[in-house]
């Protein structure tokens, strides 16, 4: 008995749930969990079905292809753990949280490597027996640095790249290598405080909440599809530094929740939005 | 085109989703929303399906009865607004919140009447053009009083009874008239602080959170199936009175959320627990 | 025995708490609650002191004026209930919440009147025996309409004006009449989604939280000092209309919390920020 | 210039704030932060004052002793980092969180050692260069085991002991060694689900929230003064194991927040309650 996840993303039509669940039933696959959603604005249908049984992937997908409307996408995913590479700069809290959660099983991922443009987090990473690649940007052009980073990353063949407070903007060339597979944590409740120093912006504005946003990286800075967001309350007594310190916990929880959703194959991307089933 | 909700509650078996959605498809009913859940401990399957189309209730239910396993329960519910009667004593905040939310459409219910063992809330009720029955308990035995309350309630043929801070314990005879149809709000995060004066109990214990619990009323005081719960943070500076005042908002939101879930036919009861789809 | 609140807002200096509390002590006034705050960036000191005793306002303030540094502001406020006028357009939920909370004592304010540019909420207002002024903007210039609104408002001599979903922008002339005395509720977590139709903007961006912000009105649209903010979680299934409906509760709670803070004399304004003690 | 914290805990009397702040002023000490609280039920006054300047501890305390009412307690605490020893059994998440937060400076404590009755967490502890004492309880009486634990702990002279999911009940003899200095995390919102297996109890009851409580350890199991509490929402789909997994985050945040409050000298204990300033 195996477990796999079937993802369907297609134009809405009558009887889709019946069609898909029937095919699964005929294949003697048991449905463990099922969620579906129809976006009434775009007319798109999304379904995520966790299946258990003995799989004949080829005929199952063939049956689906015959039954689903034109323009449908479907994927049958083995529920193996995902491989990730983490990119960092100097701040340790997000990296530390992911390392610890992978260590104790709270996050069911394999961290293939950590890549940093500073070596500050090398020691922490290696305490968890994970390789750290130090790729300094000093003396390199942006493109040269990214090529060096990419080389280090690609050697690990990651499913996803996690920017755990990586403080440099990625070029379109880099992003194009991993479409909807790079997850960033931005330290504000987007779309407020896009760009640099969001806590300073928040302090200047006198807000009473600060937050964090996990999103897929696209070519528009801090404009990619949002995966998760949360906030905490602050008051007048918080300096920008206090906000940054208080914000660590919400950055960590939003990022690790997003990693969990993505690596459990729950996140569909449509245009600039996510559907999470 | 009509909308109805199909509720299925049956022993789990392979192919149930396919079976049910196929029957809906053959009846040319469109699935607007669908949620299902299998309780792996009890082996029970729950499914809530919002359907749109032209209904032949009789043949649809017949088809389901032929297809579902023995011991199945299924209901096809017209999505009309539910009628409720609200029971109160003296505190106005929960009643006021429900009156206002029904008034502005936030709660899609019809309040048939309010019944109180004091007349303190009569004026507020009548401001909203809703009949108020004042049934004093003075000089009556518990049974006599309940019979008088029941008489007032039954004349309105409610789908549900809402105890909006009704401060008397109901007898088994009363409860038996409305099984899983009486919703109470208790002002603590049950099972902590069962019974009288929970805010005083909370104050004595020195807790840092206070809460509220909405539950169906059964014969065991404050032990019925929980529909919803929430808490707010308090600190050392809160007296029991401060807690009671601060708790109003969470009592209101928990109760009105529970009313919404129940009157939208989202709540299944199994043993002493609820499944909310 | 009376209760009054002393507010001090002055340049920071050594010994200010000792100085102020000494003067109170010499006046045989008992300190019921005290909070102070120093803004280390601006070097400003804020203190709010609830006092109980027999007051000689004149000599108390004279003593303070002698002792406090140049440029100090101090106010001794009788703890009487504040008078408010509420401005509305068509949406009932914020008005209804304030009416009910004033009715049951959760908000200790006197609602002198409600003024609307539509008459849709007249009936609701009058159910609570509060006068409603219907001042249509039809056929009037913005200035003419505001003059008519102002006339209706001024006749009630309010301490504060509450914009409970009043959907027109106020002119600088209007705002100048009530500096830091007009409280608005904006249905987004500012500074995100300034201006019109914030829920539509939120829907387009695909955010996972929506929120509300209470702020003092200044001449910069949605840019005034923030009093309070909160958010709720949403997901992909929320249309803009669903967000608007779900947002009602957070709009209500943020606005009523802000009204409570302001009318309890807890809110200091400095530049574009608030200090809430 | 040094920083110290003055804690005052005494019967309430008129002029206490003036008295204490005056003495500080005469000593030319600047007040950085100040919070005070009067418990009107017990008539007790609490004040926490962060001071900056050049301290003459002896005369400062002498001045305070002359001025404060009989039965007063006052402490002048150098703001050095506190030393803690952490006691563990097998679960890593709370320990891992504290290790990481101490590592990155989020918690300003020195972890002198970790002591476990299993050796499962030895490797994790040593990754952070912190000594681990493995003191198995096998073959030892409860008293013998505690004596061995105590011996390991006392050699590190901790200010506080943190039970980071230490799953054995401590005897009165042990507790008496560290009165109000042992902090436990219990995985329920106390007073609900005291004792063993709270997540199983929560599952059986069908609650919609689960929580965690940090408290000082006394001789009454799970009955000591509560320092902090929080909850998260769950639904019908959570097994007891799911609750345990989901509860990890709230256990971590409640425990680390409690450690921060206690080690920053913010927590007063009075009877079975805490005052946190």
UniProtKB/TrEMBL annotation, chains A, B, C, D:
Keywords: Hydrolase, One-carbon metabolism, Purine biosynthesis
Annotated metabolic or biological route of this protein: Purine metabolism; IMP biosynthesis via de novo pathway; formate from 10-formyl-5,6,7,8-tetrahydrofolate: step 1/1
EC number from the UniProt entry: 3.5.1.10
Record protein name field: Formyltetrahydrofolate deformylase
An individual GO BP term: 'de novo' IMP biosynthetic process
NCBIfam families reported for this sequence: PRK06027.1, PurU
Domain ACT: 5-87
Species of origin: Salinivibrio kushneri
């Amino acid at each position: 008995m195996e477990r796999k996840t079937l993802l369907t993303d297609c134009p809405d039509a009558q009887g889709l749930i019946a069609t898909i669940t029937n095919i699964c039933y005929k294949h003697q696959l048991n449905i463990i969990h099922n969620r579906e959603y129809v976006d009434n604005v775009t007319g798109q249908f999304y379904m995520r079905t966790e299946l258990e049984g003995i799989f004949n992937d080829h005929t199952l997908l063939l049956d689906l292809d015959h039954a689903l409307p034109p323009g449908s996408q479907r994927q049958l995913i083995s529920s193996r753990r995902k491989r990730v590479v983490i990119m960092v700069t100097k701040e340790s809290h997000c990296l530390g949280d992911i390392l610890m959660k992978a260590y104790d099983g709270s996050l069911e991922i394999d961290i293939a490597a950590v890549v940093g443009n500073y070596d500050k987090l090398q020691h922490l990473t290696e305490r968890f027996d994970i390789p750290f690649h130090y790729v300094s940007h000093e003396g390199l052009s942006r493109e040269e640095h990214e090529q060096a980073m990419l080389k280090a990353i690609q050697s690990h063949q990651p499913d996803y790249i996690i920017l755990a407070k990586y403080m440099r903007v990625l070029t379109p060339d880099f992003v194009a290598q991993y479409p909807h597979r790079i997850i960033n944590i931005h330290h504000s409740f987007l779309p407020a405080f896009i760009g640099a120093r969001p806590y300073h912006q928040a302090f200047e504005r006198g807000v009473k909440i600060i937050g964090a946003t996990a999103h897929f990286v696209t070519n528009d800075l801090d404009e990619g599809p949002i995966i998760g967001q949360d906030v905490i309350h602050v008051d007048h007594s918080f300096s920008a530094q206090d906000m940054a310190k208080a914000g660590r916990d919400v950055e960590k929880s939003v990022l690790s929740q997003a990693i969990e959703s993505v690596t459990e194959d729950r996140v569909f991307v449509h245009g600039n939005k996510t559907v999470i089933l």
